[in-house]
Design goal:
- The chain is an alpha/beta fold.
- It is about 25% helix and about 30% strand.
- The chain is built from eleven helices and 19 strands.
- The strands form three sheets. A ten-stranded mixed β-sheet has the order 10-12-11-13-14-19-18-17-15-16, with helices on both faces. Strands 1-2-8-6-4-3-9 form a seven-stranded mixed β-barrel. Strands 5-7 form a two-stranded parallel sheet.
- Strand 11, helix 7 and strand 12 form a beta-alpha-beta unit.
- Helix 9 crosses helix 10.
- The radius of gyration is 21 Å and the shape is globular.
């Protein structure tokens, strides 16, 4: 019976190649939608949570290599979506499992990819590929069925990709319609009991961020990335949240100008990931492209003042340049992998940010206390209003 059932969920795969800009070719079996997928190739070291990773808008225009060898074994469920759809261009997997073993699973990975118009390639030596990316850095790449083009044509497709530098993707993935959020953390998902009103800029926001904001701070209004600061102030917020998101922060001039206005009036601001980089830019710092970025759920980060070390979830390819930090900003956290900046505090404004993902999903929740830090700032501000 098990054998017969396994036959029913057989992967409808097709021969495909993964081509890199440097001419490297990897042959494998693809599943999902039979199409070309072009983007920046990065690797993610998380050992679980592939559904949350696949639905993270921060991966827009990227192809994700999973270093964990087995992907698909826990299936897909309705609770673990971090956004409504898949934003990454494609996925690279060692061993694909289409027979999930998980009581929460409602569909298998292949069905999920088909429903989200996405593609993945399996039977790839992801250990070798990851070592290649660590040496060369993130590379332009493409996944393409062998029936659609040759190896040389695939390499040319990879090289035609413009790359992420200079690319504003926040406005691409941002919500088109503003909405309210009051649902707390899973599994109870209780309505927020907080009296504060937070406006969250959606540059590629994840659902668990909204859950933690509602759980610890108050009701949230989620707005489009390009919403003018004056419109936000008319909503009478108690704090501003700057979300994660994809692409290069420097072209997001509309966001930087808005944040500068909020800094002027000294309203509490909390930014993560892309929001961290945008806050730094608004304060006069600069950002830079990293070699292969940070993507995973096992990154050690140290609080500079307390010397405490946290294991964190990370997903970013740009970082704040250490030599560009102005005097009114102090570095609060650093990465113990490469000493890159992981957090900043403004000395003269109620504003701070963190480069990693304190909400996890997937990953450890050791630094979730940053949401309580934001709540404290909001409480002080609300008393002065």
């Amino acid at each position: 019976l098990y054998f017969l059932f396994a036959l029913e969920v057989r992967i409808m795969s097709f021969p495909a190649i993964l081509a890199l800009e440097d001419g490297s070719i990897f042959h494998g079996e693809a599943f999902g939608i039979e199409k070309k997928a072009v983007g920046e190739l990065v690797f993610n070291t998380s050992m679980s949570g592939y559904q949350e990773i696949m639905t993270d808008p921060s991966y827009n225009r990227q192809i994700i290599t999973f270093t964990h060898p087995h992907i698909g074994n826990t299936g897909i469920n309705k609770e673990d979506y971090e956004s409504p759809t898949v934003f990454a261009e494609g996925f690279v997997i060692r061993d694909f499992c289409n027979l999930p073993s998980n009581h929460r699973s409602s569909e298998n990975l292949e069905t999920f990819l088909i429903n989200n118009n996405s593609v993945a390639i399996s039977n790839i030596d992801t250990r070798h590929l990851t070592n290649h990316l660590r040496e060369k850095g993130a590379l332009r790449s493409c996944i393409v069925p062998t029936s659609l083009c040759s190896e040389n044509e695939a390499v040319a497709l990879a090289n035609d990709f413009e790359g992420l530098e200079g690319l504003d993707l926040a406005q691409v993935v941002s919500t088109k319609k503003n909405y309210k959020w009051s649902e707390g953390i899973w599994p109870n998902c209780l309505e927020s009991s907080g009296n504060f009103h937070i406006v969250a800029y959606d540059y590629g926001i994840k659902k668990n961020i909204l859950r933690l904001l509602a759980e610890h701070v108050g009701n949230v209004s989620v707005v489009n990335a390009k919403t003018p600061a004056d419109d936000i102030l008319q909503m009478n917020p108690d704090g501003i949240f700057l979300s994660n998101g994809p692409g290069d922060p420097e072209p997001c001039d509309y966001a930087i100008k808005n944040i500068q206005k909020f800094l002027e009036i000294k309203i509490p601001i909390f930014g993560i990931c892309l929001g961290h980089q945008l806050l730094a830019l608004a304060g006069g710092a600069q950002t830079e492209k990293m070699k292969f970025g940070h993507h995973g759920a096992n990154h050690p980060v140290q609080d500079i003042k307390s010397r405490e070390v946290f294991i964190t979830s990370q997903n970013h390819g740009f970082a704040v340049n250490e030599n560009s930090i102005p005097e009114n900003i102090e570095v609060s956290h650093i990465s113990l992998f490469d000493n890159s900046i992981q957090g900043i505090n403004f000395k003269d404004r109620p504003a701070f940010s963190f480069q990693g993902h304190p909400e996890a999903s997937p990953g450890p929740q050791e630094i979730g206390s940053l949401f309580l830090q934001f709540k404290s700032m909001v409480e002080k501000y609300a008393k002065k209003k």
